[in-house]
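re: ur question from earlier - yeah i can do the single chain one, its not a big deal. heres the input i used so u can compare w yours
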Amino acid sequence: MKIRRLKTLRICIAMIFFVPTAFLFLDIWEIGAKTFSDHLLFFQFVPSALKFLNQPAVGAAGFIVVLITAFVFGRVYCSAICPLGIFQDLISRFFSNREKSRGEKKRSGRYKYSAPRNILRYTVLIATLLLFFSGTGLLLNLLDPFSSFGRFFSNLFRPLVITLNNLGTPMAEVIGVDAFYLVQWPVYAPVSLGVALVTLGTVGWMSARHGRLYCNTLCPVGTLLGLISKFSLVKIRIDKETCRSCGRCEHLCKAGCIDVKTKTVDTDRCVSCFNCLSVCPDQAMVYQYDFQPSFQINNQSGQKSRHRKESVRSRRNFVLALAAGSFGLAAARGHAAPEMLPVQA
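and the output i got, formated as tokens:
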């Protein structure tokens, strides 16, 4: 397969996951709740991990598949499976098309390289792990991408479907169609609606202005998969001899991880959308086996490379030690993993 077709493949897979997942939260008729839920939740990282912690079984090991996929191919989960990530792409595409329809001149590169916000990212990840293994899933429930997606779809978009259904049911009966019926309005807690609005507003603004900024700052799943993707077997990188630094790949990178000046790709933040592969006129963007950490690729200058290598290694060891310690703490106390409903506010 030509690497330029990977973008098309990613979009097709994304729609296969996104449409049924969205329908799962909008299904007021309860048509596919039992049919789709187990299959869809298998590949969703946090729901799968929670289910596995409470009841270890092969049927709950989808998060392990996601981890292995990240180690081999990078963060394809973020671009093709995660419903919140796909939703962000739809918002970003909407605002991009809106600019074109108005005849507005594109911003100086709709996207551009941005320095990683590692302090924020790792702080959020560590805080989420500490709170979770201490017995509360509050922060995980707020920031988990699947929970966030389900929250505003259930609390904000589902009522719209109910309204349209109840308005259209009498009209359908007039013309002899009895496939629809009136659905009772559920009672929504003000706090749930408020959290859903804040979540949608935050994710919407970030994706409209900065692409996948949410995924690379506030999302603990994205940060965790990024740590693994740093050492992925297959990576996107720039052929420095072929690249003419035209900047097209950087301006199309919604993760802001392509630096044309240094001709490097930060695989830690790359969400594997493959947009850059299809836009390069010189085919300088390559996606191939390259088993070496991204910080070694991005820094080939002796002492500077060694310094950053040690820094990243120590940071990685700290995160892993913290996670292991948290697991041990929970086990020592004899607590089971806290129960959490993914779509609750």
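Residues 81 and 300 are 34 Å apart (CA to CA). not sure if urs matches, ping me
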